[in-house]
Each structure stands twice: as C-alpha cells, then as structure tokens.
Structure prediction request, 348 residues.
Amino acid sequence: MLETRLNEETRKLQFTGGSTFIISLPISWIRQNDLKRGSSIKLREEEGGLLSIIPTDTNMQQKRLDEATIKVTPKDSSDSIIRKTVSAYLVGYNIIHIKAESQRQLSANQRHDLKDFSRIMLVGTEIVTDTPQELTLQVLLSYPELSVQSALRRTSIIAASMHRDAITALKGLDPQLAKEVITTDNEVDRFNLYVVRQLKTAIQNPKLIREIGLQNARDCLGYRLVTKSVERTADHAAKIAENVLQLRKQLEPEIILKLETMSNTAISMFETAMETLFKQDFNLAESIFEKTKDVISIEKEAVISSQKMEVEEASYIRLIIESIRRTAEYATDIAEIVLNLTVESILT
Prediction:
C-alpha cells in the first residue's frame, strides 16, 4: 500500500530471505536520477535516525548543479547583472558563466563593474574566463579552509572595530577616519555573503553541515540570523561615520562623554554576545539583557544634552544615538538566538 501527500511517500518495509529487510523506491525518483538495474546508491545515516539514499551515478546532474549561466543583453544594467550573480553565488553554484546573449558582446561597463564587484565582494572567487562574450567566475575556496565560525568571528571583529573608529572620528571630527569606516563596510558585506552561501549550501546538502563547522540544521538557522545582525551592526557603524561627516564643529565635552559611554556599553554587549555564540554559553547570553537598561538610561541623557545644540547639528547627533542604540539591540538579538540554541544546557 502506498500513501502519498505532496512529496512524501509512505512505503511498507518488507522482509525477505529470512534475514533481509527491503523497501521499494519510487519509479519517478529512479527516472529522475537516470538509474537502472545494477546502479549503485549510497546509504547514509543522518542525525536523529534519518537515512539518506544518494544516487552515485549522477555526475552530469552534479555538474548541472555546480554550474550556472546568466544571459546578458546590452540593456541589462550592471546592478541587475550583479544581483543575479550574487543570487547564483548564494545558492551555491561554484562556476558562474555570464554570457552575452545572441552572440553579442558584454559592454565595457558591464565587464568592468562585474569584475570589480567579484574581486571585492565574493570571497574565494576567481575570474577564470574573461572575453568580450563571456565572464566566468569560479569559487575555489573549500569549506574547511574558512569555516562559518571563522568567517563570522572575523566579521564581528571588523564590525566592532568600525564602531569604535566611528566614535573616535566623532570625538576628533576626523573626516578621513570616518571615510575609512564607511569603506570598511564592504569587507563585512563580502564575508556576510560568504557565510550566507555556506549556510544555504549546507541546508540543501546536510552532509556539509559539519564541514562548515556547525552541528545541525538548527545551527544553520541560528547562524543565519546572527550574521544578519552582525552585518546590520556594521551598517550602523557606517551610518555613524556618515553623520560625523555632516558635522561642522566640535561637540561639547558633555555630549561626547555620554555618546562614548553609551557606545562603550553597546559594543561591549555586542562583543559579549558573539562570545556567547562561539562558547555556546547560555548564562553569559542571559547576562546581556540586563545591560539594555544602562543603554536606555544613557540614551535619554544624550537626547536631553542634544537639545541644547543647534537644530541641524542635533539631528545628526540623534541619528548617531539611534545607531548606537541599534547596536545594543542587535547584541540582544544575538543573545536571544544563543539562548534558543543552548537552552538544552539548562534543562533538567
């Protein structure tokens, strides 16, 4: 008897030969994977007692999964081509062909912008074909060389450093340092893309989860949410720097002290939150929420101090205050994710 619901099928286990259990396989799956009598398949026991059945005679299918082709017309903007390329990169394609449609050529701008973007933003990617008709990108970095945890740790260190530099630029009204903070945001974005790629690939292919340094699919979801919070923390550091560039005169020592104190608390929360993730420490994550009260208290004082300033200057300061507060909020978001990932450690 066969029960079917959507893509699920329930088949009865049969007993034959006095010692062997067998189960029939769906004919649609056999045809889809181009299998026949005598074809080899792999059986792999997964976490939680699951059993995966993997066809081994699927080299061509794997090649199709590894390669993607993006057709480009002269009307396509560079931004549109880059978005398609990023999507292919994130999904997990290792070779991405960007080809001019109908024997035409890629424009000089299209080629320049795509090459520039791939070099700067796509970790582990090299340009292996560069002709007027085609650009081919190949991802050469393997999973063990840069695990998700290593990439995320590097990203979080950069984000924290950006925030501190932005506040230093604010104190000294240093436009050069502020611009460096804004530029550094690209480094966070490129590692964010890499982490998202690894997580998406692992979800599609569970055997890779441990290869990227995680334990199970739940970790993948948690780390996906964390990397978004890290990226947004870096974005707000860049926003602080952008607002610093708008200021025309030094701030009063009173407001600088309040902003610096608020910033130190927020970035300490962020760094502690990341430490709880890597250590999988439930109790340390729980302690982060208490510091939120300190940030809120200092924020109120900073807003009151900003009211003494000129209207235009005050508006930039309030945006800076908001970005510092958002940094603290992202820290609590990360801590909450760690609580969800480690709750079993405190259950009895």
